[in-house]
User: Which sequence fits this backbone?
């Protein structure tokens, strides 16, 4: 590289840095140590609680004659997805193609991408994923359907597709007056297999009042069921009607015609969902360390680089009596309310308001049982947003 300074040119030589010269942190912890001995800030998960949440949701689905297809955008790891499948889930959802690639490589056999896969570059990757696992994608646009058809027919493969219906979130999805024509268009395309429909009631999952949540969710799901009726009236078989988030699992599942649930956050829960119901227990927290104390003011070592704030300030869950005030990049300012002997080096557990986006900031989970470290689990889906 050259840099001009007056009439002179200087060549700036950069030293080639070898991979082996880069200092890295290797986290190797012996099974059986206290979870509070893990370096911070780190995501820690109570395995007993997470497994109980998985069993509880699957049992609920079984009792209500719907299938579970949990959303992995929360956990981002085959470690957890396999536990959900082993418990009875028919497959998983992946928000992004990159997540689907990771899950297919991790041994998950059936994957729904409930979003649109567009551009030739991504569709070619989708073809490759479909060679490893059965993949299904959501569609809403005829040009996209034609592109998918061309690539899968050329590769002598079949891609399962479902139509995304706009049930009131007004993000993606077709409207009722266009769904019959759109479904017929798909059915007549080679390389594609029409499976059914889906709708995400994301605009209702966080409504605080349960009665209001029931009313708004029912409106949304009625639109999805009407879409099913329109297709069946046109002689089109609808095998799958997929919907639901964690906040609406016990509403959507009871609506006749819904065949499967896409809930994801229930596995860990987070502060945002715990504000509206306590059906599942919080399994995930951020382990932090006190790095400064001045009177009743303390600073802990989590900041915006380790915990998300897209749904509000996180909260300190242990020890009690600590109010979280603000976050900067590396620091979190807190106030001690009352008496406390908390000192520099002590550990603090923080609960994020939104688990999904916090998990995406970390490389590993540190999983424990009964306060004792069990294993480190890599978050393989971290950053897989392409």
Assistant:
């Amino acid at each position: 590289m050259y840099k001009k300074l007056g009439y002179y040119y200087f060549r700036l030589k950069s030293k080639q840095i070898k991979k082996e010269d880069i200092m890295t942190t290797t986290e190797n912890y012996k099974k059986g140590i206290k979870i509070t001995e893990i370096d911070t800030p780190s995501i820690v998960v109570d395995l007993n609680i997470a497994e109980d949440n998985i069993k509880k949701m699957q049992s609920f689905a079984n009792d209500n004659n719907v299938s579970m297809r949990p959303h992995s955008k929360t956990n981002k790891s085959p470690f957890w997805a396999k536990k959900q499948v082993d418990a009875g889930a028919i497959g998983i959802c992946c928000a992004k193609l990159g997540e689907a690639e990771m899950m297919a490589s991790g041994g998950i056999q059936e994957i729904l991408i409930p979003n649109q896969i567009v551009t030739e570059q991504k569709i070619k990757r989708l073809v490759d994923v479909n060679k490893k696992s059965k993949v299904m994608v959501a569609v809403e646009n005829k040009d996209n359907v034609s592109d998918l058809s061309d690539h899968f027919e050329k590769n002598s493969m079949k891609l399962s597709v479902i139509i995304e219906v706009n049930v009131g979130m007004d993000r993606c999805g077709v409207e009722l007056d266009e769904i019959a024509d759109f479904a017929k268009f798909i059915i007549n395309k080679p390389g594609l297999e029409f499976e059914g429909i889906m709708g995400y009631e994301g605009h209702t999952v966080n409504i605080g009042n349960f009665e209001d949540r029931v009313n708004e969710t029912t409106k949304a799901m009625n639109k999805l069921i009407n879409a099913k009726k329109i297709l069946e009236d046109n002689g089109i078989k609808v095998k799958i009607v997929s919907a639901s988030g964690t906040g609406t699992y016990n509403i959507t599942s009871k609506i006749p015609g819904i065949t499967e649930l896409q809930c994801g956050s229930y596995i860990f829960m987070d502060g945002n969902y715990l504000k509206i119901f306590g059906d599942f227990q919080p399994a995930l927290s951020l382990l932090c360390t006190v790095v400064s104390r001045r009177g009743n003011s303390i600073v802990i070592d989590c900041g915006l680089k380790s915990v998300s704030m897209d749904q509000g300030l996180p909260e300190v869950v242990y020890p009690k009596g600590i109010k979280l005030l603000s976050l900067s990049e590396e620091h979190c300012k807190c106030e001690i309310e009352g008496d406390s002997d908390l000192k520099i080096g002590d550990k603090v557990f923080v609960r994020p308001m939104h688990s999904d986006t916090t998990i995406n900031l970390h490389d590993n989970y540190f999983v424990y049982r009964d306060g004792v470290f069990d294993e480190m689990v890599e978050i393989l889906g971290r950053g897989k947003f392409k």
